[in-house]
């Protein structure tokens, strides 16, 4: 017979024989850790089930500033100024700026780069809303399929304002699905990201995550850095 079953059977008999108050005291003394763990697992499982069922997003906006050593992450002056300008309720959802990502798709398609793998994960799960980097690197990143085609109908408002700034990735001739250049970036070389924040030298572009659902907030950010809003 299983030793654990024998022990549990003995414990049940012992508990049965105790007066009610003694039962409560005994259970609390010897079984409080398993009880707490069970409550935690049930509670956390319920929380996850609700989040999955309702698909409640965590962020108003998540932007990655790739290949820069500038201090522009969450909590930076840029972050503070943008969140104040946008007026988002940060008790409801977050604005995340990440400035700790270093990869270049021009170099061996960033193969084996841990930062690129993180970018892929964020893009594929819809967490990433936008990424900025030097223009040539950004358009090359369009090959990964993780940047939204800016001619998508969901980008109609952005295209109306900034279509003349679109940057294109030209698919190879053997790409049967895509025959025309794909708009994957927006030229921000004259934005405050270059002129005031000096995040990049003289070239900067922004791409939108292919599965982003926060396009209105991405547009708010573009308006902000171009001082259009």
Key descriptive features of the protein:
229 residues; alpha/beta; six-stranded mixed beta sheet; elongated
User: Looking at the structure, what is the overall shape?
Assistant: elongated
Number of strands: 6
The mean pLDDT is 85
Order of helices and strands: HHEHEHEHHEEHEH
Query: How would you describe the oligomerization state of the chains in this entry?
Result: single chain
What separation lies between the terminal Cα atoms?
74 Å
Tell me roughly what share of residues is in helical segments.
Answer: 40-55%
Secondary structural class: alpha/beta
How many helical elements? 8
Low-confidence stretches: 50-56
Walkthrough of the structure:
A six-stranded mixed beta sheet has the order 2-1-3-6-5-4. Residues 50-56 have low confidence and may be disordered. The protein contains eight helices and six strands. With 229 residues, the chain is α/β, with parallel strands linked by helices. 43% of the residues lie in helices and 13% in strands.
Brief rundown of the structure:
With 229 residues, the protein is of the alpha/beta class.
Secondary-structure blueprint:
Layout: H1 3-16, H2 20-54, E1 59-65, H3 77-86, E2 94-98, H4 114-124, E3 130-133, H5 135-141, H6 156-162, E4 166-169, E5 182-187, H7 192-195, E6 205-208, H8 215-225
Parallel strand pairs: 1-2, 1-3
Antiparallel strand pairs: 3-6, 4-5, 5-6
């Amino acid at each position: 017979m299983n030793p654990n079953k024998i022990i549990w059977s003995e414990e049940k008999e012992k508990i049965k024989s105790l007066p009610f108050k003694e039962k409560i005291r005994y259970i609390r003394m010897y079984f409080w850790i398993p009880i707490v763990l069970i409550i935690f697992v049930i509670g956390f499982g319920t929380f996850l089930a609700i989040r999955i069922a309702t698909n409640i997003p965590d962020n108003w906006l998540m932007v990655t500033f790739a290949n820069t050593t500038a201090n522009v992450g969450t909590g930076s002056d840029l972050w503070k100024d943008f969140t104040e300008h946008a007026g988002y309720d940060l008790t409801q959802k977050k604005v995340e700026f990440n400035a700790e990502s270093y990869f270049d798709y021009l170099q061996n398609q960033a193969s084996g780069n841990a930062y690129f793998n993180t970018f892929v994960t964020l893009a594929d799960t819809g967490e990433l809303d936008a990424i900025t980097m030097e223009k040539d690197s950004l358009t090359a990143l369009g090959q990964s399929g993780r940047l939204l085609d800016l001619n998508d109908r969901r980008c109609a408002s952005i295209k109306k304002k900034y279509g003349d700034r679109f940057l294109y990735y030209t698919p190879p001739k053997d790409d049967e699905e895509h025959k025309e250049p794909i708009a994957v970036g927006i030229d921000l070389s004259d934005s405050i990201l270059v002129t005031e924040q000096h995040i990049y030298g003289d070239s900067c572009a922004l791409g939108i995550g292919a599965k982003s659902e926060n396009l209105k907030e991405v547009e708010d950010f573009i308006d902000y850095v171009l001082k259009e809003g």
